[in-house]
């Protein structure tokens, strides 16, 4: 892969890469999609390079597809990382050595790369990586047990998680992450899982219902021992509307 | 300037630029710092290139200083722009022709540039551009009367303004933009000016006081015909704290 890119390096944006932080939720677990690198003991975010003739947004979609086989995921740009020595030349040289690429051929890869971060939140049971070609190990790993990552990938992951948590204050989440019919406690656990902390039940109920995105169904959850909780669904039209205008009309 | 950069292009990050959207507030006016380009009838955001040995954040500070003489302004990265043809080669060739640089010497500049956007909000009376060297025309221009801009600079400006308005929901503003002692109506007009719309007086009063960043002074505004309004100042300690934790503790 790197060899092919180096052979066609004039087609790629120099000194620029893409890194994707794909969060996966299911059943009160928040995971992140990581790749086991072949050239080191550490894991990495799925990343890659952008062609000079494609937008960075399209580049991000293609990088994710190329490295993990995942398609149709809506990626949001969240930050660009450009520390002076974010990819030390020792690191690049190690990768080149692993792929048996002579330094002179790998010069393009030895420069400083600025990387644009993209993130997404999906249901990890609906987004099963099917690597095409290079058979990398791609895994959903619990966000509370992220192993050591290459370069500044931990910083990129942390910033993405911070952005995701901040976004909870601005836009609703849950659509496509919960079953069609769900209970308020299930929705609360989704929020708690993303935030990494417990929420007050009454406060949550008050705030979430005030947004007006929930439809109370004339049904209770079955298979529950005592006091069956009510089922809800998202009012899709209103949900889309709130996505656009934001949760806080603010001032 | 461009000539010097091209002569030392190996010291600059290829295909990457910085653009700064510096908003200036004073006396209920919101302005933006623009540069009158020499090579076209259009105006531009102050922008430039990043050295390979500096971080993009430091690069942004240096670009702003180099183009406008402004220093000590806290810049926040807000988005990166990378459409496939965001800087058409016809544009680059026009600039090279203006500076009488042969195409073969200007090859570096003819490629697609991805640009990282930074923004800031300052008091435009406190931030007077003192161009060093190349004597560009740098002006504070009303945000409601932005002239035609080069390339995708209008899109970058719009995104920065959208981000600034969104940030009003997340962090307090006003410190360093209002006199030390101010009235609630003055603070409300600051918010209205940034948002570009009127706010309900009672709602604003309720929300702004609930944050707890204001200290009500034992003083009334003088030189006011009737019913003098109370004066307030920011509780700096609490203001800094809220800046850190955010306005909405959210869920």
UniProtKB/TrEMBL annotation, chains A, B:
Record keywords: Hydrolase
Record's signal peptide: none
Keyword DNA-binding: no
Bilayer-crossing regions: none
Molecular-function annotations in GO: hydrolase activity
Entry-linked CDD domains: NUDIX_NadM_like
Entry-linked InterPro entries: NUDIX_hydrolase-like_dom_sf, NUDIX_hydrolase_dom, WH-like_DNA-bd_sf, WH_DNA-bd_sf, WHD_NrtR
Domain Nudix hydrolase: residue ranges: 15-165
Annotated protein name in UniProt: NUDIX hydrolase
Organism of this sequence: Flavobacterium keumense
Species lineage: Bacteria, Pseudomonadati, Bacteroidota, Flavobacteriia, Flavobacteriales
């Amino acid at each position: 892969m790197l060899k092919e890119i180096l052979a066609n390096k004039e087609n790629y944006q120099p000194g620029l890469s893409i890194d994707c932080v794909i969060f996966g939720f299911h059943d009160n677990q928040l995971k992140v999609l990581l790749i086991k690198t072949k050239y080191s003991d550490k894991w990495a975010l799925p990343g890659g390079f952008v062609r000079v003739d494609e937008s960075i947004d399209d580049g991000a979609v293609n990088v994710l597809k190329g490295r993990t086989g995942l398609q149709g995921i809506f990626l949001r740009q969240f930050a660009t990382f450009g520390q002076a020595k974010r990819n030390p030349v020792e690191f690049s040289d190690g990768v080149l050595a692993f792929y048996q690429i002579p330094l002179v051929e790998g010069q393009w890869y030895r420069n400083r790369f600025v990387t644009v971060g993209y993130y997404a939140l999906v249901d990890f049971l609906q987004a099963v990586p099917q690597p095409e070609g290079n058979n990398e190990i791609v895994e959903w790993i619990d966000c509370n047990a992220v192993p050591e990552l290459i370069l500044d990938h931990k910083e990129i992951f942390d910033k993405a998680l911070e952005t995701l948590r901040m976004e909870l204050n601005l836009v609703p989440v849950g659509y496509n992450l919960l079953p069609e019919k769900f209970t308020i406690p299930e929705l609360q656990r989704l929020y708690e899982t993303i935030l990494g902390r417990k929420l007050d039940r009454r406060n949550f109920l008050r705030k979430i219902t005030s947004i007006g995105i929930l439809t109370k169904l004339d049904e209770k959850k079955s298979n529950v021992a005592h006091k069956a909780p009510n089922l809800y669904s998202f009012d899709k039209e209103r949900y889309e509307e709130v996505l656009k205008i934001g949760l806080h009309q603010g001032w």
